[in-house]
Structure formats: structure tokens, C-alpha cells
Fold this protein.
Amino acid sequence: MHLLRHAELSRRALLAAGLLPLVGCARDPGKATTTSTTAPPPAASPQATSPHPRTPSPGTPEDATPTAVPTQATAGTPVHGDPAEEAARLAGDDPVLHALVAAMTPGWLPPSAPDPEPTRIFDDVAVVGTDFVSATALETSDGVILVDALESRDQAADILVPGLRRLGVDPARIRYVVAAHGHADHFGGAQYLADRYGARVLMSAADWDVAAADGSPDVPERDLVITDGQRLTLGGTAVRLWLTPGHTPGTVSPVFPVRWHGRRHTAMLWGGTGLPEAASGKRDYLRSVIRYAALMRRAGVDVELNNHAQTDHGLERLRALRDGSAGRDNPFVLGRAGAQRFMRVLELLVRARMDA
């Protein structure tokens, strides 16, 4: 599978041929270790490790008082009856949740769609990518933190860099590239950005190993290692990096502040959507969903993001922002209860697959 991934076929062609798993990439919870990095990043060897620990300050988003949400939309609460039916009931007529239900259905393939135009989804967040996978750039006063880097060096040069420039984001200001997990469609352009702009590349220890075994010609040189709960700080903006194993052994899902028309929100980005085949992987995935939902509640998350936009109605939401049909509303702002409902539906869909 890994060698075929880098043939001259598109990833959609491989999906259609059944050679790649759900959502195109393949596939506990103790007290988090909190760390801090500051900018600009100093020169360091490729084997550098995570920066020094720091204790969170009171009043930061991760210390916020949880907002109550309906019990039936809270991850980890008991399931009565069939979890798939409960997921469908909770999804209702919500297109975001309908897309999630479809993406988690066995045999689902992402339909063909035009590549989205580069889009600024928040005052300080830009998304660039293809219809299959996207990279998310968070701007700070001291540079850019990029989550994922598309599928290859070529895509970084031909799609990512020009797309960022179109949105007024200088790619030379990319300080960090966070690879959400160790599949090539997430780390593929990272080494290009490291070589050209001096960006530092971060991945969990487990997924540095996954990447090393990938077979891609674009595997980045091993650099910074993400630890659970790490705080990556740049220009006064702090991103929390949580380990959410399941899709891969070391998938990372960030939580970070964003602004829309000057108003602050808190975003999550689920790092790996596809469910693995192994029962142990499904169990890890379920634990990660429940734990991450609790962390989201604590942080006051009200924005849902994904690096595969066809799994959460993301392409349509990007289009609504570009063509103005969203008005002053931001379709990625689901509200705190809506963000929790998203995770509850995801949990129920995983439970349904475990019971199948």
C-alpha cells in the first residue's frame, strides 16, 4: 500500500481501486505533560526533542469552566440501544454531521469534487489544499504554525506555497509544521518547507516511526517530538497538542485560539478520521474520542475543523465563506454544544463499528 501511494496515480484512484483505506490515510489518558516553545525557533539538529515544560496559567482557555451541553450529546455517556441509530438521531438534518456519518460508513469513498480555492476561514487562519486533504495555517505575530503539509514536496511547491501567498500569508514565516499523523498526505510537503524556509517539523514519537516506514520519498528528517498536552507557543499564541491514537498510534489533534471579525473562538482539529481495522485500534480510537471531547469541553471549543474536508462538509463550508453565502456567520463555528455533539456522533459511529 505504501509504495503504491506514491505512484503516478491520484490518491482517489487508489481509493477507488480499494488499495487505500477509509479517508485515504490508513487507518491513555493520563495527566498531560505541558511544554512550551517560543519563537523564532533556534537552529537545532534534526534529532531535537520537545521544549521545556511549563505550567498552564489560570484563566487560559484550557482552564475554562466547562459549558453544559445536553447529556445525549456528551461523549462517554451511556449508550442505550443501537449506537448507529442514536448517531443518526443526533445528526438530524445537520449537513456537517451527515457528512461525518457518511464518511464513517464502511465502503465510503470521497466523491470527486473540484479542488477548493485557498480560503481564509478565520481572521488568522488560512486553509489551502485539494478536495482530498488540506493544510491549515495559523498566523501569529511571530510567524505561522502550519498543521499538515499536503501529500508531497511537489504539492507543497505547486499548491500550498502559492495558495498561502494568494491569501496574504508569507510562507517564509512558517516556523513550525505539525504533522497530525505519520501518513504521507499529512507530512508530504514538510521537508520542502524545512529545506526552503527553515521550518521545524513536529510529529509524535510513535508517528515518526510510522512515517519512517511509509515508503514515501518525502518522509521528513526526524525533528521535534510532540508530547501529550504539549503547548506550542509562537508570538503569544498557544496551541495545545493532544495525542489521540486510533487512526495511527500517535495521531495528534490540536486545540488553538482563532478570531472571527475580531471575536475570539477556540478551535479543535481532529487529526485522523479513518477508523482502523484492528479491534485494538478501534478501542484506542474510542478512548481518544471520549478523552478529547472532555478536553474540548474544558477548553471551551466551539469550532470544528478537519484535515479531510469531505468528512465534515468542509468543502461546502469553505465555499460558503468564499462566495459570501455564509454572511457574517462562520460555518465552522458550531458552538460549544455543537462541537460536543460532533464528538458524540463520532463516538457513536465508532461504537457501531466495534459492535459490527
Observations:
- The mean pLDDT is 84.
- The longest helix spans residues 279-299.
- The longest strand covers residues 252-260.
